[in-house]
Automatic annotation (TrEMBL):
Boundaries of every Aldehyde dehydrogenase domain copy: 29-492
Family as reported in the entry's similarity comment: Belongs to the aldehyde dehydrogenase family.
Taxonomic superkingdom: Bacteria
GO molecular function: aldehyde dehydrogenase (NAD+) activity
Species, as recorded: Pedobacter nyackensis
Record key words, sorted: NAD, Oxidoreductase
Protein name: aldehyde dehydrogenase (NAD(+))
EC number(s) per entry: 1.2.1.3
SUPFAM superfamilies: ALDH-like (SSF53720)
Keyword NAD: yes
Assembly behavior: Homotetramer.
């Protein structure tokens, strides 16, 4: 594995210190504030970046609006060809970009590579899509009329993304939005700005090689950009990935100007462990779901709802498995659990444990903050397990950390009610070899989540399916299936090729 300055050099971003980019053009208002990016792996500062000013924002939006006039008429399969080349460039940079993701965000190296692989996969998906984007045709009630619908691009799509998937979420949005004929403005998380700069540099190089105008893919760094986007009528679609708390603000502002938003917010995901489950498989699914990415996935397993007959046995297996977890540097592939993103996240973890204890949680694996040479960033915590009741306030919330709650059930109906009995609705799963149980869980009376799995955990998803969740998770869908429709406007067209003007519903209007 390369060291971080080699990685930054290979990615071509060592000398870039910009607040914004409209493609090959990188810029910043002189004297603007800066933001330091620290690695949670070792606490070291990686680099400083500049923060975009209101003026930088205007520059970007104007460039994007101009570029849209070109890009919307550039044929969709040709747009797909650019996205195909972007996928190729990602293949070339997979190792360096994956390493940067791992070092700046703190997820394991394998997961860093996995994120870049997801970017490549969504590019492949979008290339195929660029020759589809189908509308329907339907029969007109009027003679000699033809009726059909078609899909047009919307304009500027703003992408506001979270720290925990610092590159993949942007690419899900960008690859689809671009083949649909939109231009993109990305505001990455201020906790992972270098990942943003690296991705923008890769796509900008591809666009330049193809002599595309500036403004097709744009980047803006800094939190203040969020509010500018929320309130800007020139941005018809805001795709927001982040917490429910911020999502509520974004959604209200965008709706108040009749803009559209795609909201991908917090989850509170549960696995039901039936007495008919394959317990060995269930243990792996549950432990990976709870501690993978140090519990910082929107699909992380937060709750296990376990049948009373196997509750004690399963709990004991879990405790044993947690005893074997290796916590440490995520770039060392022997470790299972890396750090949380920053000290504020560690504080939230500690607060959740204290609050849980006050509410009556019984910790069967205790948590705690790790210290010493291997943990100098102060961001490493112990994954923990607590027996709780579903109604506890802390259990109803998403704590973005490796805290796993155990809840006992008697009947499947009760288990489904517990699984659904939280404000969020992202990912859910049942582990069972009983067909009736599995089908009940997937039925209209089953899980109320956007993702419902059988015999795999809650964590992770393939790009081929539409990704997103219900209730306070926001209702948005990204990635596969027909999620592309969220990035386009639908138009119904009726064409009269008769000699008379016939009104719909046989209305007569004689002059
Ligand atoms: P966050 O809500 O703190 O930040 C998300 C983004 O919003 C960041 O880029 C941030 O700078 C920006 N932001 C902050 N204030 C804003 C404002 N007023 N207007 C517009 N943007 C603003 O989230 P986070 O801590 O980075 O990420 C963790 C959260 O994201 C978790 O809740 C997780 O479940 C969620 N998430 C959801 C999905 C999903 O697909 N459902 C995927 C990944 C993460």
């Amino acid at each position: 594995m390369n060291n971080i300055s080699t990685v930054l050099k290979n990615l071509g971003i060592l000398k870039l210190n910009p607040a914004f980019s409209t493609g090959s053009n990188w810029g910043a208002t002189s004297g603007a504030k800066t933001l330091d990016s620290f690695s949670p792996v070792d606490g070291k500062k990686i680099a400083s970046v500049q923060l975009a000013t209101d003026e930088d924002y205007e520059t970007v939006i104007k460039k994007a609006a101009d570029a849209f006039l070109f890009w919307r008429n550039f044929p969709a399969p040709k747009r797909g060809e650019i996205v195909r080349q972007f996928g190729e460039a990602l293949r070339m940079h997979k190792e360096d970009l994956g390493t940067l993701v791992s070092y700046e965000m703190g997820k394991s190296l394998q997961e860093g590579f996995g994120e870049v692989q997801e970017m490549i996969d969504i590019c492949d998906f979008a290339v195929g899509l660029s020759r589809q984007l189908y509308g329907l045709t339907m029969h007109s009630e009027r003679p000699n009329h033809r009726m059909y619908e078609q899909w047009h691009p919307m304009g500027i799509v703003a992408i506001i993304s979270a720290f925990n998937f610092p590159v993949a979420v942007w690419s899900w949005n960008t690859a689809l939005a671009l083949v649909c004929g939109n231009v993109c403005v990305w505001k990455p998380s201020s906790k992972t700005p270098l990942c943003g700069i690296a991705c923008q540099h890769i796509i900008a190089t591809v666009l330049k090689k193809n002599n595309m105008p500036e403004g097709i893919s744009n980047l803006l760094i800094g939190n203040s950009v969020g509010n500018l986007i929320n309130n800007d009528k020139r941005v018809p679609l805001v795709s927001f990935t982040g917490s429910t708390r911020i999502g509520r603000v974004v959604s209200a502002s965008v709706a108040s100007r009749f803009g559209r938003s795609i909201l991908e917010l917090g989850g509170n995901n549960a696995i039901i462990i039936s007495k008919d489950a394959d317990l060995e498989m269930s243990i792996i699914g549950a432990v990976f779901g709870a501690v993978g990415t140090a519990g910082q996935r929107c699909t992380s397993t937060r709750r296990l709802i376990i049948h009373e007959d196997i509750y004690e046995a399963f709990k004991n297996k879990l405790v044993k498995a947690y005893g074997q977890l290796r916590i440490g540097d995520p770039l060392d592939q022997h470790n299972h659990v890396g750090p949380l993103i920053d000290i504020a996240a560690v504080e939230m973890y500690s607060h959740a444990i204290d609050k849980g204890k006050k509410e009556g949680a019984n910790f069967v694996v205790e948590g705690g903050i790790l210290s010493g040479d291997a943990y100098q960033s102060g961001c490493y915590v112990k994954p923990c397990i607590a027996e709780v009741e579903n109604h506890y306030e802390i259990v109803q919330e998403e704590t973005f950390a490796p805290i796993l709650y155990l809840i006992k059930y008697k009947t499947l109906a009760e288990a489904i009610a517990l699984q659904n009995g939280v404000p969020q609705g992202l990912s859910s799963a049942i582990m069972t070899l009983n067909l009736r149980e599995a089908e009940q869980f997937l039925s209209a009376a089953g899980s109320d989540c956007g993702i419902a799995n059988v015999n795999i955990g809650t964590s992770g998803a393939e790009i081929g399916g539409a990704f997103g969740g219900e209730k306070e998770t926001g209702g948005g869908r990204e990635s596969g299936s027909d999620a592309w429709k969220g990035y386009m406007r639908r138009q119904t067209n009726t064409i009269n090729y008769s000699n008379t003007l016939t009104l719909a519903q046989a209305v007569k209007f004689d002059l």
